[in-house]
Amino acid sequence: MILRAFTFLMAAALASALTAQSLRVTGGVTDYQVIQRDFSSAETAVTVSGTATAPDGREVEARIPGRDWTKIATVQSGRWSGKLSLSRGGPYNLEFRVVGEPLSAVIEHVSVGDLWILAGQSNMEGVGDLVDVQPPSPRVNMFDQTDRWRIAEEPLHRLVDAADRVHWRLDDKKQPVKMTGEALTNWINARRKGAGLGLRFAVALAGTGIPIGLVPCAHGGTSMDQWSPALRDKGGDSLYGAMYRRFQAVGGKVTGILWYQGESDANPKAAPEFAKKFEDFVAAVRRDFNDPNLPFYYVQIGRFVSKDAAEPWNLVQEEQRLAQHRIPNLYMVSSITSSLDDLIHVGTADLKRLGEELALLAMNRPIYSVSAGLQPAAPEPSFIRREERLIRVGFENGRDGLRAPGRVAGFTIHDATGAPLPLIYRAQIDPIEPMTVRLYLSGDPPPGATLRYGYGRDPYCNLTDGRGFAVPVFGPLPLPQ
Fold first, then answer.
1. Which end of the chain, C or N, has fewer beta carbons within 10 A?
2. What is the pTM of this model?
């Protein structure tokens, strides 16, 4: 009873001191924020500002509990601003006061680590069932779409009441309307979909000891045109503008971009222009984010149960595969082996797997110091050799050989017009060269024949490396004559 009374009195005393509000923190840092670390220094300088009722000339000091107070600013005209140095890690509680006065402000659960932007369309937004989702981690926070820092938890994206109008639903007059009040509460309580890959990515990456902050910006059903950098100055009325605004709101520095988009461009009109639009998008983000080497980690689009033409879909997949070879610091994983929760959306279990794979690729960067034994990329075709009616397809970058449950599936041969030919009667992993597939043919391919893997919008593909990384959709690649 005595201990309980003492605790109550101490809490009351602290509340009284804070209520006095002789000093407020109004900028630079807030509860649960993750601050992008400075890669060039052991310490990261954070500019913090606020107001104070103290006379001009009085000094403001700050500390992490258990450490010494450090003077960081001087009050001028009721305001103050100064720099605070923080080591990588956390979470920290930051205390502020005017020198000689009681503790006035506490900012809780602040970390210094890496920020990642999540962008693209629905498979990045997350449409997986909210069942067996990735649990939260105390080392992973999010700048949610209402512009509030908090512990990251599924679902990461919530468009209906986002700070940016571009995400709101449209009314009968095609005007964006923000959901509020009881309607919002009911919508949240009824939600059964929304799991994505971002949280699993972040939790896996936080296993390196680096706190992670996520900045969700994705929006389902959106095309490269809707993500056009030319719309930046429209701010929250455009996807790119909203992403750029949120980038600035979290400090104007991030470690990388997670990107999952392409389904909306896999049509006859947009697919031929996809490669240039994606390349221009990457260049614009790097320019606007003032980081010419900013890494992009992205997913090659997978399956779509549809009777529409295969060519535009496969063209986007091939351009995504080739982009990582044309543009530095792009890294791709494939979703072609993933299970779906509906006609086009990846299920929760495989979204978590894709997030894990992207994290493994990110861990190859020296900033995480855990690259030993990892591979810098998912498996990729490296050669095609023909020996009469036997074709050998070799792969690089994969680890621990190739794997396939049952017979290898997904390879097709096509004639010069693109029509599939029924020539492969057996496909198997080479028993001697574990990163090579043997394709046995019933006849000779005609001149101009090509090889594909994952042809069609909904192929069955089952080839992975030993880690489970799916071989990406590829082709058409020319067959040796």
1. N
2. 0.93
